[in-house]
Each structure stands twice: as C-alpha cells, then as structure tokens.
Amino acid sequence: MTDQMDWAAVLRCPRCMRGALSLQRAGWICADCSAGYPVLGEIPWLFAEPQSMLSQWRGRLQLLLQSLEREARILRTELAASALGARTRARLEALAAAHEEHAKHLTQLLAPLGLAATATGYETHLALRTRLPSDQGLTNYYVNVHRDWAWGQAENEASLELIRLAAASHEDWGRTLVLGAGAGRLAYDVHMQCAPRLTVALDFNPLLLFVARDVTGGATLPMYEFPIAPRRLADHAVLRSLCAPQPVRAGFHLVAADALRPPFAAEAFDTVVTPWLIDIVNIDFPRLAARVNALLRPGGAWINFGSLAFAEGERALRLSFEETVEVVTQTGFSDPTIVERSIPYMASPASRHARLETVVAWCARKQGAPAVMPEVDVLPEWLVTSDRPVPQLEAFKVQAAATRIHAFLMALIDGRRSVRDMARMLVEQRLIAPEDAEPAVRKFLTRMYEDSRRAGR
Fold first, then answer.
1. Using CA atoms, how far apart are residues 57 and 353, in angstroms rounded to an integer?
2. Cα separation of 203 and 46, whole Å?
3. 381, containing H or E segment
4. pTM value?
5. pLDDT at 377
6. Which of 185, 182, 243, 232 lies closest to 349 in space, CA to CA?
7. What does the alpha-carbon distance between residue 196 and residue 173 come to, in Å, rounded to a whole number?
8. How confident is the model over 37-58, as pLDDT tens digits?
C-alpha cells in the first residue's frame, strides 16, 4: 500500500465521525455527509467546525501581532522618555527590534491562516475574548519549538530513549499516531528511529505545526527566543536557527485537529503516543483512555510519556500515579510496562529556568474494549452555521446583565466623577442596593486598574 493510500485509509470525517475522506481540489471531502475540510499550508485542517476554528486562530494571531507591536511601541517610548544607562538602553533597543522582527517572522510563517481576511482591533479582540485560556494560545508552548529544533538535543534524546525502554517489546510500530505532537520533534524522532511505516503527528496549534512542517521538510527557520529568566543581557532576545538533523523520510504526516475529537477511523493505528498530554487536556483521564483505546487495533500499544500532574478540575479526578495505572487497566489495556527517570527539561542555554523533570513512560497493550465509550462533545448547530437563531440560554441572560452594568460603569468614567458619584448613579438606575454600591464600584475599578498595570498600560 502506498503512503498516500495508507494515509487516506486512517482518516474519517471529524463532523459525522463516519465517512471516509478523499482529497479533492477543494480539500478533504467526506463521502457520507459531504463536509469539506481545507488544506492550509500543506496541512489538512480537520476540525469538526473548520471555518469557526480558522476564524478563532486568525483572531488569536491578529491579537498576538498587535500585542507585539504594542510591546515594541512601549519599549521605544521608554527609550525616548527616560535617562537610561548604556546597558539598559541596549537591552530595550534589542527587545524592541526583536519584537518587531518576531512579528514579521510570525506573519510569514502563519500566512496560510489568511490574516488579511480580518481587520479587528485590539480592544475588540479583548472584549470578544479572543484571548483564550492559557492552554489554547498560539505561544503558550512557544518555548517547545526551540527545545525541539535548536538547543534541546539532550532532552530530545533522553525522551526517545525513555519511550524505547518502556516499549522494548513493541517491535512493529506500524501505523503510529502522536496525539498532541506540538512542534513535532518526538514524532520526527519516532518516525526516523522506530521505523513505523506511517506516522501521523496531530496538534491543534498552527504555529507549532507550521514550524514542524518547515523544519522536517529540510528548511532552516529563524525564530526569536524570549527566555523568562535570561542569563545575561544578550539572552533577553535570542535569534535561533531551527532545523532538523535531516529531512524526514516518507510516511510522515502533520494534521491540524482536536486530540479529543481525532479525525481517524476506529482501530486505525498500531501505536498511539501521548506525550505530555494526559494531565493537561480538558477531559477526565478515564474518558481519554477510552478514546485512545478506540483508536488502536487489538494488541496495539499505547505509549504515554511525561509527568503526571493532574492539578485541575474536581478533586476526585486529580489522580495519583497508582490511580492512573489502575485506570489504564480498567479501560481495556494490559498492565503497563513502566519506566521512570529524571531528564533535562527546557534546558535553554539562555535561561536560568533549566531543570530536571522526573517523567514516566509506559507501554500498555490493548486487550479489549472499555466498558463504556464516552460520547464526543460537539458544538451545537447554531454555533457551527451562521443562519440559525442563538437560543436565550440562562447563562447568556446572566452575562448580558453583567455586561450592561460593566458598560454603564465604564461610560461613567469621564475624569470628573468620583467613586461616590458613580455609585449614586447606579443606585438611581436601580442596578444595585445603596449599601452595596460604593464597595462594588471600588472593587470593579480596582480590578480594572490592576488589569491595566499587568498589561503594561
């Protein structure tokens, strides 16, 4: 079977979860429901709501570029307005130039998103909450691109060695899926050194995927690193050259998709790798384990790698190591082979944050199906399409009332009114009880003031 036939065979429509996909001139098309999925920068865009997700990433990119422009402007304002020492001036000048150049690199790299299609302002993005939670931004895992393709050789080698130790009895990697592949180094190393005939590297972040596309294709990519804890003055902004040891061999595919709604056929893979994923995704671990099970053929191997730090959500779901292993065996897998080791973690030569991380790798065989396969959440039709009425959900009503009050308060800020004046007007509008008015206004303005200081205003 050729590589392209093998690749197409594993794909299924992420919307209906049934139909096979075929690549046509307009993109990947579902044979059952006729849903279409574009190819952006050579990468299939296989989200259940592809246009909605494209719009969200465009918004996040525009906000990021506006933030970089704003940061450069603030830096240059400080340079012009202050009596600075020579070293401070050099640092601020270097940072301003780096932010401006970084914006150009990102604009070029992420051009397939079609940024010209939007012209929304910075304030509008903030108001519409384009700035999504920290685990869903363009740059939240940005340091990974430098670890993967610039200075992380020791960590990359240790990671692959640990995985191979855990999977020592797994001789045929066959069709391999890496869920949450990030900038792609682990998927690349697995493909080059473990000999799967097909490797699919899935992530939802286009910045990471486009970096992976370029470097695995043999390109050298210039990208700035901005360490959190720079070692020296020159380390505040470092231009790195990202590159792979050699171009990836045939059979390696990148896909933009949701790891919790993967666009693949049931039992399509011989191996599923979950690197640094299971304790950060927005789903409880038993449900995630069941979904991994569904992707594997009988006898296939689930290889997990990373730390175990279930720190969010309900307390009962913040699992210990022993509970995690127990869940694996309760969702259709064998007792896992487990290897633990301390390895270098984000050891940038420009940062003081380098450390050792104790990580765990396991390899578990699929022995049967889980007792219960969880339903896959999907957005309602009124969000997917643009012509359906938006329902008056109770949560929307509450938020609308709060927004009206916030907008009213912000409109009262004119440089003359005091906290007491504003509180009195809220009472006159019957928006709040007299005894609550002044404390509420003061709390609201305090939060706004603190937010503005954190944003550097």
1. 29
2. 10
3. helix 381-384
4. 0.82
5. 56
6. 232
7. 5
8. 999 999 999 999 898 889 889 9
